[in-house]
Protein backbone atom coordinates (compact mmCIF):
# COMPACT_ATOMS: atom_id res chain seq x y z
CA UNK A 1 0.00 0.00 0.00
CA UNK A 2 1.38 3.41 -1.04
CA UNK A 3 2.05 5.82 1.81
CA UNK A 4 2.22 9.62 1.97
CA UNK A 5 3.21 12.16 4.61
CA UNK A 6 0.48 13.45 6.92
CA UNK A 7 -0.19 17.12 6.16
CA UNK A 8 0.26 18.96 2.87
CA UNK A 9 3.08 21.10 4.31
CA UNK A 10 5.19 17.96 4.86
CA UNK A 11 4.57 16.47 1.42
CA UNK A 12 8.17 16.80 0.14
CA UNK A 13 9.95 15.77 3.36
CA UNK A 14 11.52 12.37 2.66
CA UNK A 15 12.43 11.81 6.32
CA UNK A 16 9.04 12.72 7.85
CA UNK A 17 8.05 9.96 10.30
CA UNK A 18 4.25 10.38 10.30
CA UNK A 19 2.67 8.71 7.28
CA UNK A 20 -0.76 7.50 6.18
CA UNK A 21 -2.09 5.39 3.24
CA UNK A 22 -3.12 7.12 0.02
CA UNK A 23 -6.89 7.35 -0.32
CA UNK A 24 -8.63 4.78 -2.52
CA UNK A 25 -12.27 5.23 -3.58
CA UNK A 26 -14.82 3.17 -5.50
CA UNK A 27 -18.07 4.25 -7.13
CA UNK A 28 -20.97 1.92 -6.35
CA UNK A 29 -24.54 1.81 -7.65
CA UNK A 30 -26.16 3.95 -10.33
CA UNK A 31 -28.80 6.61 -10.74
CA UNK A 32 -30.17 8.07 -7.52
CA UNK A 33 -28.53 5.30 -5.47
CA UNK A 34 -24.96 6.05 -6.58
CA UNK A 35 -22.46 6.19 -3.71
CA UNK A 36 -18.74 6.70 -3.19
CA UNK A 37 -17.01 4.08 -1.05
CA UNK A 38 -13.72 5.10 0.62
CA UNK A 39 -12.16 1.64 0.59
CA UNK A 40 -9.27 2.20 3.05
CA UNK A 41 -10.93 4.68 5.43
CA UNK A 42 -10.20 2.48 8.47
CA UNK A 43 -6.44 2.45 7.73
CA UNK A 44 -6.38 6.22 7.13
CA UNK A 45 -8.25 6.95 10.36
CA UNK A 46 -5.94 4.65 12.32
CA UNK A 47 -2.87 6.50 10.97
CA UNK A 48 -4.45 9.84 11.98
CA UNK A 49 -5.46 8.59 15.43
CA UNK A 50 -9.12 9.51 14.89
CA UNK A 51 -12.27 7.39 14.59
CA UNK A 52 -13.24 6.60 10.99
CA UNK A 53 -16.75 7.89 11.74
CA UNK A 54 -15.31 11.41 12.19
CA UNK A 55 -13.71 11.60 8.74
CA UNK A 56 -16.75 10.05 7.04
CA UNK A 57 -19.10 12.49 8.77
CA UNK A 58 -16.80 15.40 7.83
CA UNK A 59 -17.07 14.47 4.13
CA UNK A 60 -20.86 14.46 4.39
CA UNK A 61 -20.95 17.84 6.18
CA UNK A 62 -18.65 19.52 3.64
CA UNK A 63 -20.31 18.00 0.54
CA UNK A 64 -23.87 18.44 1.80
CA UNK A 65 -24.56 14.73 1.30
CA UNK A 66 -25.56 11.87 3.54
CA UNK A 67 -22.64 9.80 4.83
CA UNK A 68 -22.45 6.63 6.92
CA UNK A 69 -19.74 4.49 8.49
CA UNK A 70 -20.54 0.89 9.42
CA UNK A 71 -18.60 -0.13 12.54
CA UNK A 72 -19.09 -3.87 11.93
CA UNK A 73 -17.93 -4.04 8.30
CA UNK A 74 -15.67 -0.94 8.31
CA UNK A 75 -17.45 0.47 5.23
CA UNK A 76 -17.37 4.26 4.65
CA UNK A 77 -20.05 5.52 2.21
CA UNK A 78 -20.85 9.04 0.94
CA UNK A 79 -23.92 9.61 -1.26
CA UNK A 80 -23.10 10.80 -4.76
CA UNK A 81 -20.17 10.38 -7.14
CA UNK A 82 -17.06 12.19 -5.91
CA UNK A 83 -13.51 12.26 -7.27
CA UNK A 84 -10.67 10.88 -5.17
CA UNK A 85 -8.75 14.17 -5.45
CA UNK A 86 -11.74 16.12 -4.11
CA UNK A 87 -12.11 13.83 -1.09
CA UNK A 88 -8.32 13.95 -0.52
CA UNK A 89 -8.50 17.76 -0.39
CA UNK A 90 -11.29 17.59 2.19
CA UNK A 91 -9.20 15.12 4.21
CA UNK A 92 -6.34 17.67 4.26
CA UNK A 93 -8.72 20.27 5.71
CA UNK A 94 -9.82 17.73 8.35
CA UNK A 95 -6.17 17.10 9.29
CA UNK A 96 -5.50 20.84 9.70
CA UNK A 97 -8.56 21.38 11.89
CA UNK A 98 -8.76 18.19 13.98
CA UNK A 99 -5.38 16.44 13.83
CA UNK A 100 -2.34 18.75 13.55
CA UNK A 101 -1.18 20.83 16.52
CA UNK A 102 -1.80 24.54 15.98
CA UNK A 103 1.55 25.31 17.64
CA UNK A 104 4.15 22.94 16.14
CA UNK A 105 2.18 21.16 13.40
CA UNK A 106 2.75 17.71 14.88
CA UNK A 107 -0.13 15.25 14.13
CA UNK A 108 0.34 13.37 17.41
CA UNK A 109 -2.55 15.07 19.22
CA UNK A 110 -5.50 14.00 21.35
CA UNK A 111 -9.05 15.43 21.31
CA UNK A 112 -10.19 16.76 24.69
CA UNK A 113 -13.73 17.83 25.67
CA UNK A 114 -13.83 20.55 28.34
CA UNK A 115 -16.48 21.06 31.01
CA UNK A 116 -17.92 23.88 28.89
CA UNK A 117 -18.43 21.40 25.99
CA UNK A 118 -15.59 22.87 23.95
CA UNK A 119 -13.12 20.85 21.84
CA UNK A 120 -9.36 21.13 22.28
CA UNK A 121 -6.31 19.40 20.79
CA UNK A 122 -3.52 18.51 23.21
CA UNK A 123 -0.13 17.93 21.56
CA UNK A 124 1.97 15.08 22.94
CA UNK A 125 5.17 16.66 21.55
CA UNK A 126 5.16 20.27 22.76
CA UNK A 127 2.22 20.22 25.22
CA UNK A 128 0.41 23.02 23.37
CA UNK A 129 -3.40 23.02 23.75
CA UNK A 130 -5.25 24.20 20.63
CA UNK A 131 -8.84 25.49 20.67
CA UNK A 132 -11.01 24.04 17.87
CA UNK A 133 -13.44 26.32 16.02
CA UNK A 134 -16.85 25.28 17.38
CA UNK A 135 -18.70 26.79 14.38
CA UNK A 136 -17.84 23.71 12.32
CA UNK A 137 -20.71 21.23 11.86
CA UNK A 138 -18.56 18.24 12.82
CA UNK A 139 -18.02 19.54 16.38
CA UNK A 140 -21.60 18.69 17.43
CA UNK A 141 -21.13 15.13 16.12
CA UNK A 142 -17.86 14.75 18.09
CA UNK A 143 -19.55 16.01 21.29
CA UNK A 144 -22.28 13.38 20.87
CA UNK A 145 -19.73 10.67 20.01
CA UNK A 146 -16.62 11.42 22.12
CA UNK A 147 -13.39 9.55 21.28
CA UNK A 148 -12.10 6.77 23.49
CA UNK A 149 -9.45 7.98 25.91
CA UNK A 150 -6.01 6.51 25.33
CA UNK A 151 -4.00 4.95 28.09
CA UNK A 152 -2.03 7.66 29.80
CA UNK A 153 1.73 7.55 30.17
CA UNK A 154 1.18 7.05 33.92
CA UNK A 155 -0.64 3.76 33.24
CA UNK A 156 2.17 2.59 30.99
CA UNK A 157 4.76 3.51 33.59
CA UNK A 158 2.85 1.69 36.34
CA UNK A 159 2.72 -1.45 34.18
CA UNK A 160 6.46 -1.24 33.56
CA UNK A 161 7.10 -0.63 37.27
CA UNK A 162 5.03 -3.71 38.21
CA UNK A 163 6.97 -5.81 35.70
CA UNK A 164 10.28 -4.63 37.20
CA UNK A 165 9.05 -5.48 40.70
CA UNK A 166 8.13 -9.00 39.58
CA UNK A 167 11.60 -9.44 38.10
CA UNK A 168 13.20 -8.21 41.33
CA UNK A 169 11.13 -10.66 43.40
CA UNK A 170 12.25 -13.51 41.14
CA UNK A 171 15.90 -12.47 41.50
CA UNK A 172 15.53 -12.28 45.29
CA UNK A 173 14.08 -15.81 45.38
CA UNK A 174 16.98 -17.09 43.27
CA UNK A 175 19.47 -15.37 45.58
CA UNK A 176 17.82 -16.96 48.62
CA UNK A 177 18.16 -20.41 47.03
CA UNK A 178 21.86 -19.77 46.38
CA UNK A 179 22.42 -18.82 50.02
CA UNK A 180 20.68 -21.97 51.27
CA UNK A 181 22.84 -24.13 48.99
CA UNK A 182 25.99 -22.35 50.24
CA UNK A 183 25.02 -22.89 53.88
CA UNK A 184 24.32 -26.59 53.28
CA UNK A 185 27.67 -27.01 51.50
CA UNK A 186 29.56 -25.17 54.28
CA UNK A 187 27.95 -27.37 56.99
CA UNK A 188 28.93 -30.49 55.07
CA UNK A 189 32.53 -29.28 54.76
CA UNK A 190 32.63 -28.36 58.45
CA UNK A 191 31.60 -31.90 59.56
CA UNK A 192 34.20 -33.56 57.33
CA UNK A 193 36.82 -31.01 58.35
CA UNK A 194 36.52 -31.72 62.12
CA UNK A 195 37.53 -35.39 61.74
CA UNK A 196 40.52 -34.41 59.64
CA UNK A 197 41.53 -31.74 62.18
CA UNK A 198 41.69 -34.34 64.99
CA UNK A 199 44.19 -36.42 63.01
CA UNK A 200 46.24 -33.36 62.01
CA UNK A 201 46.43 -32.10 65.62
CA UNK A 202 48.39 -35.21 66.65
CA UNK A 203 50.93 -34.58 63.90
CA UNK A 204 51.11 -30.80 64.14
CA UNK A 205 50.84 -28.95 67.47
CA UNK A 206 50.11 -25.61 65.78
CA UNK A 207 46.43 -24.57 65.92
CA UNK A 208 44.83 -25.34 62.57
CA UNK A 209 42.71 -22.81 60.68
CA UNK A 210 39.02 -23.53 60.97
CA UNK A 211 37.12 -24.39 57.79
CA UNK A 212 34.22 -22.21 58.91
CA UNK A 213 36.60 -19.19 59.09
CA UNK A 214 37.70 -19.85 55.53
CA UNK A 215 34.06 -20.08 54.43
CA UNK A 216 33.23 -16.82 56.20
CA UNK A 217 36.23 -15.14 54.58
CA UNK A 218 35.18 -16.46 51.16
CA UNK A 219 31.62 -15.23 51.74
CA UNK A 220 32.89 -11.78 52.78
CA UNK A 221 35.08 -11.60 49.67
CA UNK A 222 32.09 -12.53 47.51
CA UNK A 223 30.02 -9.86 49.26
CA UNK A 224 32.77 -7.30 48.61
CA UNK A 225 32.74 -8.26 44.94
CA UNK A 226 29.02 -7.52 44.75
CA UNK A 227 29.52 -3.96 46.03
CA UNK A 228 29.54 -1.35 43.26
CA UNK A 229 31.08 1.99 44.06
CA UNK A 230 29.44 4.86 42.21
CA UNK A 231 29.79 8.62 42.07
CA UNK A 232 26.67 10.71 42.46
CA UNK A 233 26.44 12.77 39.24
CA UNK A 234 23.23 14.66 40.00
CA UNK A 235 23.19 18.44 39.86
CA UNK A 236 22.60 18.78 43.63
CA UNK A 237 25.67 16.64 44.39
CA UNK A 238 27.75 18.58 41.84
CA UNK A 239 26.73 21.91 43.41
CA UNK A 240 27.61 20.57 46.85
CA UNK A 241 31.07 19.52 45.65
CA UNK A 242 31.61 22.90 43.97
CA UNK A 243 30.67 24.72 47.18
CA UNK A 244 33.27 22.69 49.05
CA UNK A 245 35.86 23.57 46.43
CA UNK A 246 35.35 27.34 46.66
CA UNK A 247 38.59 29.17 47.08
CA UNK A 248 39.62 30.59 50.45
CA UNK A 249 39.21 34.10 49.07
CA UNK A 250 35.56 33.48 48.16
CA UNK A 251 34.92 31.92 51.55
CA UNK A 252 36.41 35.01 53.27
CA UNK A 253 34.16 37.26 51.19
CA UNK A 254 31.12 35.27 52.31
CA UNK A 255 32.16 35.47 55.97
CA UNK A 256 32.87 39.20 55.81
CA UNK A 257 29.52 39.92 54.18
CA UNK A 258 27.65 37.98 56.86
CA UNK A 259 29.56 39.55 59.80
CA UNK A 260 29.72 43.19 58.72
CA UNK A 261 26.31 43.63 57.14
CA UNK A 262 24.53 40.93 59.22
CA UNK A 263 22.61 39.71 56.19
CA UNK A 264 20.85 36.31 56.16
CA UNK A 265 22.20 33.13 54.58
CA UNK A 266 20.90 34.26 51.19
CA UNK A 267 24.31 35.93 50.59
CA UNK A 268 26.04 32.57 50.84
CA UNK A 269 23.65 31.19 48.28
CA UNK A 270 24.38 34.10 45.91
CA UNK A 271 28.13 33.47 46.11
CA UNK A 272 27.60 29.76 45.57
CA UNK A 273 25.46 30.53 42.52
CA UNK A 274 28.40 32.51 41.12
CA UNK A 275 29.94 29.16 40.16
CA UNK A 276 28.86 27.84 36.78
CA UNK A 277 27.43 24.37 36.53
CA UNK A 278 30.40 23.26 34.42
CA UNK A 279 32.89 24.48 37.03
CA UNK A 280 33.76 27.79 35.35
CA UNK A 281 33.00 31.13 36.98
CA UNK A 282 30.01 32.97 35.57
CA UNK A 283 30.68 36.10 33.59
CA UNK A 284 30.04 39.24 35.72
CA UNK A 285 26.87 41.15 34.92
CA UNK A 286 28.67 44.21 33.57
CA UNK A 287 30.95 42.06 31.40
CA UNK A 288 27.91 40.14 30.11
CA UNK A 289 26.16 43.38 29.17
CA UNK A 290 29.33 44.60 27.47
CA UNK A 291 29.55 41.41 25.40
CA UNK A 292 25.84 41.68 24.52
CA UNK A 293 26.30 45.28 23.34
CA UNK A 294 29.30 44.26 21.22
CA UNK A 295 27.30 41.49 19.53
CA UNK A 296 24.36 43.86 18.95
CA UNK A 297 26.72 46.34 17.30
CA UNK A 298 28.02 43.56 15.04
CA UNK A 299 24.49 42.44 14.16
CA UNK A 300 23.40 46.00 13.30
CA UNK A 301 25.70 45.94 10.27
CA UNK A 302 24.01 42.75 9.02
CA UNK A 303 27.02 40.44 9.06
CA UNK A 304 27.09 36.94 7.64
CA UNK A 305 27.35 34.03 10.11
CA UNK A 306 31.00 33.56 9.10
CA UNK A 307 31.80 37.20 9.90
CA UNK A 308 30.13 36.92 13.30
CA UNK A 309 32.08 33.72 14.00
CA UNK A 310 35.37 35.42 13.07
CA UNK A 311 34.60 38.47 15.23
CA UNK A 312 33.77 36.39 18.32
CA UNK A 313 36.70 34.00 17.88
CA UNK A 314 39.16 36.52 19.38
CA UNK A 315 36.92 37.28 22.38
CA UNK A 316 38.36 35.75 25.61
CA UNK A 317 34.93 34.77 26.98
CA UNK A 318 34.05 31.08 27.40
CA UNK A 319 31.81 29.30 24.83
CA UNK A 320 28.88 29.30 27.30
CA UNK A 321 29.27 33.04 27.97
CA UNK A 322 29.29 33.75 24.22
CA UNK A 323 26.16 31.63 23.67
CA UNK A 324 24.30 33.35 26.54
CA UNK A 325 25.27 36.77 25.20
CA UNK A 326 24.23 35.82 21.64
CA UNK A 327 20.76 34.76 22.83
CA UNK A 328 20.37 38.06 24.74
CA UNK A 329 21.48 40.05 21.68
CA UNK A 330 19.31 38.17 19.17
CA UNK A 331 16.12 37.64 21.17
CA UNK A 332 16.18 40.24 23.95
CA UNK A 333 12.64 41.40 24.68
CA UNK A 334 11.11 38.48 22.74
CA UNK A 335 7.60 37.40 23.68
CA UNK A 336 4.99 35.46 21.75
CA UNK A 337 6.56 34.00 18.60
CA UNK A 338 9.94 33.45 20.25
CA UNK A 339 10.21 29.92 18.77
CA UNK A 340 9.72 31.18 15.22
CA UNK A 341 12.43 33.82 15.72
CA UNK A 342 14.90 31.17 16.86
CA UNK A 343 14.32 29.09 13.71
CA UNK A 344 14.61 32.20 11.49
CA UNK A 345 17.95 33.22 13.05
CA UNK A 346 19.34 29.71 13.52
CA UNK A 347 22.25 30.46 11.12
CA UNK A 348 23.97 32.58 13.80
CA UNK A 349 23.53 29.81 16.38
CA UNK A 350 25.00 27.29 13.91
CA UNK A 351 28.01 29.55 13.30
CA UNK A 352 28.71 29.84 17.03
CA UNK A 353 28.27 26.08 17.48
CA UNK A 354 30.82 25.45 14.73
CA UNK A 355 33.30 27.70 16.53
CA UNK A 356 32.69 25.79 19.77
CA UNK A 357 33.24 22.49 17.97
CA UNK A 358 36.62 23.73 16.74
CA UNK A 359 37.49 24.73 20.31
CA UNK A 360 36.49 21.28 21.62
CA UNK A 361 33.46 22.50 23.61
CA UNK A 362 30.22 20.39 23.89
CA UNK A 363 28.31 22.44 21.34
CA UNK A 364 24.78 20.99 21.75
CA UNK A 365 24.95 21.09 25.54
CA UNK A 366 26.15 24.73 25.39
CA UNK A 367 23.18 25.55 23.14
CA UNK A 368 20.70 23.88 25.52
CA UNK A 369 22.20 25.68 28.52
CA UNK A 370 21.93 28.96 26.59
CA UNK A 371 18.23 28.33 25.91
CA UNK A 372 17.61 27.52 29.57
CA UNK A 373 19.52 30.59 30.80
CA UNK A 374 17.69 32.95 28.42
CA UNK A 375 14.20 31.53 29.12
CA UNK A 376 14.82 31.80 32.88
CA UNK A 377 15.26 35.58 32.53
CA UNK A 378 12.86 36.12 29.58
CA UNK A 379 9.19 37.07 29.69
CA UNK A 380 6.54 34.53 30.63
CA UNK A 381 5.29 34.30 27.02
CA UNK A 382 8.78 33.46 25.73
CA UNK A 383 9.39 30.92 28.51
CA UNK A 384 6.18 29.07 27.57
CA UNK A 385 7.59 28.40 24.08
CA UNK A 386 10.80 26.72 25.27
CA UNK A 387 9.45 23.29 24.25
CA UNK A 388 8.66 24.62 20.76
CA UNK A 389 12.20 26.05 20.52
CA UNK A 390 13.87 22.75 21.42
CA UNK A 391 11.54 20.75 19.17
CA UNK A 392 12.20 23.13 16.26
CA UNK A 393 15.99 22.79 16.67
CA UNK A 394 15.50 19.00 17.04
CA UNK A 395 13.58 18.91 13.74
CA UNK A 396 16.37 20.97 12.12
CA UNK A 397 18.92 18.30 13.29
CA UNK A 398 20.75 20.83 15.48
CA UNK A 399 19.95 18.86 18.65
CA UNK A 400 20.07 15.11 19.22
CA UNK A 401 17.54 13.16 21.27
CA UNK A 402 20.06 11.58 23.66
CA UNK A 403 21.67 14.92 24.56
CA UNK A 404 18.27 16.59 25.10
CA UNK A 405 17.27 13.86 27.57
CA UNK A 406 20.69 14.02 29.27
CA UNK A 407 20.40 17.81 29.68
CA UNK A 408 16.88 17.46 31.07
CA UNK A 409 17.91 14.78 33.58
CA UNK A 410 20.77 16.94 34.86
CA UNK A 411 18.51 19.93 35.49
CA UNK A 412 16.38 20.83 38.49
CA UNK A 413 12.87 19.52 37.68
CA UNK A 414 11.18 22.20 39.79
CA UNK A 415 12.42 25.04 37.55
CA UNK A 416 9.68 26.61 35.34
CA UNK A 417 11.75 26.09 32.17
CA UNK A 418 12.12 22.34 32.65
CA UNK A 419 8.44 22.05 33.63
CA UNK A 420 7.52 23.49 30.22
CA UNK A 421 9.89 21.04 28.49
CA UNK A 422 8.53 17.96 30.32
CA UNK A 423 5.75 17.12 27.76
CA UNK A 424 8.30 17.14 24.91
CA UNK A 425 10.70 14.87 26.87
CA UNK A 426 7.85 12.42 27.63
CA UNK A 427 6.93 12.44 23.94
CA UNK A 428 10.54 11.66 22.98
CA UNK A 429 10.79 8.78 25.45
CA UNK A 430 7.38 7.32 24.51
CA UNK A 431 8.22 7.54 20.80
CA UNK A 432 11.53 5.75 21.45
CA UNK A 433 9.87 2.97 23.51
CA UNK A 434 7.16 2.49 20.85
CA UNK A 435 9.79 2.21 18.11
CA UNK A 436 11.68 -0.37 20.19
CA UNK A 437 8.49 -2.40 20.72
CA UNK A 438 7.77 -2.32 16.97
Sum up the structure in keywords.
9 strands; Defensin A-like; 4 domains; four-stranded antiparallel β-sheet; three-stranded antiparallel β-sheet; 438 residues; flat
Brief summary of the model shown:
The chain is an alpha+beta fold and 438 residues long.
Question: How is this structure best described in words?
Answer:
With 438 residues, this protein is an alpha+beta fold. The protein folds into four domains: 3-108, 2-Layer Sandwich (Defensin A-like); 152-189; 236-276, no CATH class; 280-437, Serine Threonine Protein Phosphatase 5, Tetratricopeptide repeat. Helices cover 59% and strands 8% of the residues. The protein contains 19 helices and nine strands. It has helices at 41-48, 52-63, 84-98, 138-144, 153-203, 211-226, 235-244, 248-260, 266-272, 285-300, 305-313, 319-331, 338-344, 346-359, 363-377, 380-384, 386-395, 401-410, 416-437; strands spanning 3-5, 19-21, 25-28, 35-38, 67-70, 75-79, 109-113, 119-123, 129-131. A four-stranded antiparallel β-sheet has the order 3-4-6-5, with helices on one face. A hairpin with a 4-residue loop joins strand 5 and strand 6. The protein is flat.
The helix content is 55-70%
Measured distance between first and last alpha carbons: 19 Å
Main sheet strand line-up: 3-4-6-5
Q: What is the CATH architecture descriptor of the largest domain?
A: Alpha Horseshoe
Mean pLDDT: 77
Order of helices and strands: EEEEHHEEHEEEHHHHHHHHHHHHHHHH
CATH names the topology of the largest domain as Serine Threonine Protein Phosphatase 5, Tetratricopeptide repeat
Tally of distinct domains: 4
Amino acid sequence: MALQNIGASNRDDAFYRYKMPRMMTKIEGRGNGIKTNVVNMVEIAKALGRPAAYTTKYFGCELGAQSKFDEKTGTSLVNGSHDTSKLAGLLENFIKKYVQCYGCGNPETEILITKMQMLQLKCAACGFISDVDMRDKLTSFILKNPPEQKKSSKDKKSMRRAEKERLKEGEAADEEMRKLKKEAASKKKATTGTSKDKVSKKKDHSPPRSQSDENEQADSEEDDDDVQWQTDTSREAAEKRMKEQLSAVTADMVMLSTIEEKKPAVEVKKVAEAVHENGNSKIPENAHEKLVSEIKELLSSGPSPTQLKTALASNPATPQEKMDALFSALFGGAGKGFAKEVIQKKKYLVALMMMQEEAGAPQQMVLLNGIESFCTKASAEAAKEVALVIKGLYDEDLLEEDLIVEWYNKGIKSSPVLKNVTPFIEWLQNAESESEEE
